[in-house]
């Protein structure tokens, strides 16, 4: 049963609901919940495919369109072009992340049918991390993915025991990402 579960979890990354190349346009809102229950907003990201996104925090928004970037204070409307901090090939970069996550899976658990926010979901838990990328960064943790039974899409991702190359110690908070799908999301380069 463990080998079957490991294969099920790995399949989530290959044409499944954790494969960004096969996910519909969406909004991902991530919060961090500390041990005392304090909730801190981390990011609100709109995705239009793999290489077009708008990522907003409480103070700043960053837009990516292929290899170009723009920034703006969160409370303003005007985008300003900024030197790109993106890889030369963002699709290959994204694919490497997915491949690493699938290849480095450990502790797979197929937790089965549950309810989440009034919806029927199938839940999977797994530990994984990326390999160091071209910038020397890597990250990972223990993830719990909630896949909606009616759509086959990820609707919630919880991350605990987060580790990263830029963090001295594992993060004790729980990061919760809530995903809503919206085909009307369309991101294009700002004019001017």
Brief overview, please?
The chain is mainly β. The protein contains 2 helices and 11 strands.
Description of the molecule:
By secondary structure, the chain is mainly β. It is 13% helix and 46% strand. The protein has an 11-stranded antiparallel beta sheet with strand order 6-5-4-3-2-1-11-10-9-8-7, covered by helices on one side.
Strand order of the largest sheet: 6-5-4-3-2-1-11-10-9-8-7
The radius of gyration over CA amounts to 17 Å
Percentage of residues in DSSP E strands: over 45%
Uncertain runs are none
Strand pairing plus helix content: what structural class? mainly beta
Large-scale geometry: globular
Mean pLDDT: 95
Helicity range:
10-25%
Number of helical elements: 2
- Main β-sheet description: 11 strands, antiparallel
List the helices and strands and how they pair.
Elements: H1 2-12, E1 26-33, E2 39-47, E3 52-56, E4 60-65, E5 68-73, E6 80-82, H2 90-103, E7 106-116, E8 119-129, E9 139-148, E10 154-164, E11 174-181
Antiparallel strand pairs: 1-2, 1-11, 2-3, 3-4, 4-5, 5-6, 7-8, 8-9, 9-10, 10-11
């Amino acid at each position: 049963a463990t080998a079957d579960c490991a294969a099920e979890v790995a399949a989530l990354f290959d044409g499944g609901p954790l494969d960004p190349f096969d996910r519909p346009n969406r909004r991902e809102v991530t919060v961090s919940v500390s041990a005392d229950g304090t909730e801190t907003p981390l990011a609100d990201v709109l995705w239009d495919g793999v290489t077009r996104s708008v990522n907003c925090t409480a103070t700043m928004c960053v837009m990516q369109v292929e290899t170009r970037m723009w920034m703006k204070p969160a409370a303003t409307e005007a985008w300003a072009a900024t030197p790109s901090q993106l890889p030369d090939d963002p699709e290959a970069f994204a694919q490497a992340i997915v491949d690493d996550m699938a290849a480095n899976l450990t502790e797979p658990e197929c937790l089965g049918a549950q309810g989440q926010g009034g919806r029927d979901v199938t839940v999977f838990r797994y530990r994984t991390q990326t390999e160091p990328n071209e910038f020397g960064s890597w990250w990972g943790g223990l993830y719990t993915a909630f896949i909606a039974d009616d759509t086959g899409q990820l609707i919630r991702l919880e991350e605990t025991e987060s580790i990263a190359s830029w963090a001295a110690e594992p993060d004790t908070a729980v990061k919760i990402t809530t995903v809503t799908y919206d085909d009307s999301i369309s991101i294009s380069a700002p004019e001017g």
